[in-house]
């Protein structure tokens, strides 16, 4: 029975690791509150939107940005070599609004298809030191988006991580899966930021100081990679002192999720392909959590079958699920994703399986990148 004993002790360690992650690490976000009430800042903001063949989405997005209730902001629109009417849509809005600036990026051989090159030109064209980023297929959920994100800048906080949600689609299992993965990812990067280990942000809702960008030589450390203008850059420049989070509902943005499983897998392959370039400490923390998830779901049913200590195993399983439900349940309420709570175990198993599939797929072939 030596093998069974080894499996049991391994399971105890795995459950302990999972509980530590859910209660102590993720709990920093789930159970905590913002340390202090931030006051609105008298700062000017440059909202930067990089678009490639997004004419239709810009028609919907730009009125929402223009209508923001904020005293001083400009909108920097970057046309990244579009072949549709994106540039014409931008010019139409610019003709009506003085605070819109257009950066028309034409493809060049060295940086062809590299969003980071286009973003760099947009950042250089920005007038203000405080930059707020979103995507053309995204939209702020309130007219106070700029206000709430910008008020988190302080004399020491130069990076603000926001939440980028996905629209809810009724009776769609894929939609629930996409939103659960987004919820879990946000819970992790918010939590790590709060314990001084910020490792990523999402370009759908991210703010940082222009000065910080140039002091770090922009995206030069990873310009050869077509992904990572958000997570790799934050991983590079974030410290325990210069990064904060914004979790107010007025600061959320929302995007239309992928409509097919194949499209979503391609998107996630692009995102996950950058994780291997994270700092070692972040890769270890993320890797330990993921491996412990896999082992939990493998060892749980196995030990219930082969071990005589089924009462102990059942208690450990319950403790782990209670910890996960407490942590993710509270996080989902903060991020307005409470409808996912009843489906947590099923979605978690599905996400673990998808992530493993993507990991293997990315080893065998490189994912496609910026449109």
From TrEMBL:
<comment type="similarity">
    <text>Belongs to the glycosyltransferase 2 family.</text>
</comment>
<keyword id="KW-0472">Membrane</keyword>
<feature type="transmembrane region" description="Helical">
    <location>
        <begin position="284"/>
        <end position="306"/>
    </location>
</feature>
<protein>
    <submittedName>
        <fullName>Glycosyltransferase</fullName>
        <ecNumber>2.4.-.-</ecNumber>
    </submittedName>
</protein>
<feature type="transmembrane region" description="Helical">
    <location>
        <begin position="312"/>
        <end position="331"/>
    </location>
</feature>
<dbReference type="InterPro" id="IPR001173">
    <property type="entry name" value="Glyco_trans_2-like"/>
</dbReference>
<dbReference type="GO" id="GO:0016757">
    <property type="term" value="F:glycosyltransferase activity"/>
</dbReference>
<keyword id="KW-1133">Transmembrane helix</keyword>
<keyword id="KW-0328">Glycosyltransferase</keyword>
<keyword id="KW-0812">Transmembrane</keyword>
<feature type="domain" description="Glycosyltransferase 2-like">
    <location>
        <begin position="46"/>
        <end position="213"/>
    </location>
</feature>
<dbReference type="InterPro" id="IPR029044">
    <property type="entry name" value="Nucleotide-diphossugar_trans"/>
</dbReference>
<dbReference type="Pfam" id="PF00535">
    <property type="entry name" value="Glycos_transf_2"/>
</dbReference>
<feature type="transmembrane region" description="Helical">
    <location>
        <begin position="343"/>
        <end position="364"/>
    </location>
</feature>
<feature type="transmembrane region" description="Helical">
    <location>
        <begin position="6"/>
        <end position="27"/>
    </location>
</feature>
<keyword id="KW-0808">Transferase</keyword>
């Amino acid at each position: 029975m030596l093998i069974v004993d080894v499996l049991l002790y391994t399971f105890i360690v795995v459950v302990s690791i999972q509980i530590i992650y859910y209660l102590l690490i993720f709990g920093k976000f789930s159970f905590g509150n913002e340390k202090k009430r931030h006051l609105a800042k008298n700062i000017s903001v440059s909202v930067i939107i990089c678009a490639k063949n997004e004419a239709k989405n810009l028609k919907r997005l730009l009125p929402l940005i223009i209508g923001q209730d904020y005293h001083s902001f400009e909108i920097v629109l970057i046309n990244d070599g579009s072949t549709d009417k994106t540039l014409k849509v931008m010019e139409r809005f610019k003709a009506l609004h003085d605070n819109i600036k257009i950066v028309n990026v034409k493809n060049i051989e060295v940086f062809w298809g590299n969003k980071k090159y286009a973003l760099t030109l947009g950042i250089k064209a920005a007038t203000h030191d405080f930059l707020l980023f979103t995507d053309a297929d995204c939209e702020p959920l309130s007219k106070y988006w700029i206000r709430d994100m910008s008020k988190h800048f302080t004399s020491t906080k130069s990076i603000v991580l926001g939440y980028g949600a996905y629209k809810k689609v009724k009776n769609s299992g894929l939609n629930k899966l996409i939103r659960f993965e987004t919820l879990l990812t946000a819970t992790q990067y918010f939590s790590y930021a709060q314990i001084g280990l910020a490792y990523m942000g999402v370009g759908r809702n991210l703010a940082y100081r222009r000065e910080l960008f140039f002091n770090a030589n922009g995206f030069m450390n990873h310009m050869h990679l077509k992904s990572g203008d958000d997570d790799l850059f934050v991983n590079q420049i974030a410290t325990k002192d210069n990064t904060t989070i914004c979790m107010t509902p007025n600061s959320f943005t929302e995007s239309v999720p992928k409509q097919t499983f194949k499209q979503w897998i391609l998107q996630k392959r692009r995102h996950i392909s950058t994780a291997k370039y994270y700092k070692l400490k972040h890769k270890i923390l993320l890797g330990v959590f993921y491996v412990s998830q896999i082992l939990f779901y493998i060892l749980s049913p196995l030990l219930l079958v082969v071990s005589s200590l089924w009462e102990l195993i059942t208690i450990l399983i319950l403790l782990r699920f209670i910890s996960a439900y407490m942590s993710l349940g509270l996080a989902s309420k903060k991020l307005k994703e409470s409808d996912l709570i009843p489906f947590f175990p099923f979605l978690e198993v599905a996400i673990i399986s998808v992530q493993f599939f993507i990991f293997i797929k990315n080893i065998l072939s490189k994912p496609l990148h910026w449109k």
